[in-house]
Amino acid sequence: MMPAVSLTLDYSGFKTLLLAAVLPPAPMLLLAAWGGWRLKRGRRWGGWMLGLALVLAWLSATEAAGELLSRARRPPPALSRTQVEALRGSQDGVVLVLGGGVHRHLPEYDAGAPRRHTAERLAYGVWLARRTGWPLAFSGGIGWTATELRQPEAEIVARVAAEDYGLPLRWSESRSRDTRENAANSLPMLMASGVKRVLLVTDDGHMPRAVRAFEGVAAPLGIAIVPAPVGLRDDALSSFDDWCPSVEGFARVRNIVYETLAWWAGR
């Protein structure tokens, strides 16, 4: 007799399953399968549905589609060098980098390491900290779907910032599981240390959601949030390559679709 199998689906499991169904390329594959089924049986619109699915699958892996989706969300503009240099000399600010995922272990480092989004954010955060003279902070724990992690993002990033960039974190917040918790956990800690301005570093897709979460917490604390987005493009529409599938294009489209869904969900 086979033993009974108990399947429990907590929030992290439900979120993982939902994202697998709604993020590219799953919707396009489902539409293609439906269109093919209708075409095979002589139903109306089957060919059109199959064709549309193929076009959308192509576009979902292009830099151009990612750029159009990003512009539709209207992220804050990049900080100019003049704006950055104007902050030098102030003593009440901090550069706060938000986590975007880490690898639990990479053999070449024999340690955990930042994933692409976190690495890009951290590099820009270090660049800002060195040019403004402001201290560097990081917020990120173990996300809802990062069930394989045993070490919070902040601990891995603290080591990388100190060893690879020679710029230790002044503050490190490691309990957050999502963007709202990033704001709720990090801003009171910074306020207690006299911080009045925060250069908020995250990618352009995540920035609108991050600003909403942080400004809601920062206003009662008397802290000003200054968006410092990374990952913006000057132009990703005019080149033929922009309209051809690429790993970078697919990753950007997928990220912006994810961020749009998270915005609607209020997370």
What would you say this structure looks like, in words?
This protein is an alpha/beta fold and 267 residues long. The chain has two domains: 82 residues, no CATH class; 150 residues, HUPs (Rossmann fold, 3-Layer(aba) Sandwich). It has ten helices and seven strands. Keywords: Membrane, Transmembrane, Transmembrane helix. InterPro entries: Cell_Envelope_Assoc, DUF218, Rossmann-like_a/b/a_fold.
Portion of residues in beta strands equals 5-15%
What quaternary form is this? single chain
Largest sheet: 5 strands, parallel
Question: Residue ranges: pLDDT <50 for 5 or more in a row?
Answer: 1-8
Order of helices and strands: HHHHHEEEHEHEHEHEH
Tag the structure with descriptive keywords:
single chain, 267 residues, Cell_Envelope_Assoc, alpha/beta, two-stranded antiparallel sheet, transmembrane, transmembrane helix, 2 domains, DUF218, membrane, disordered N terminus, Rossmann fold, five-stranded parallel β-sheet
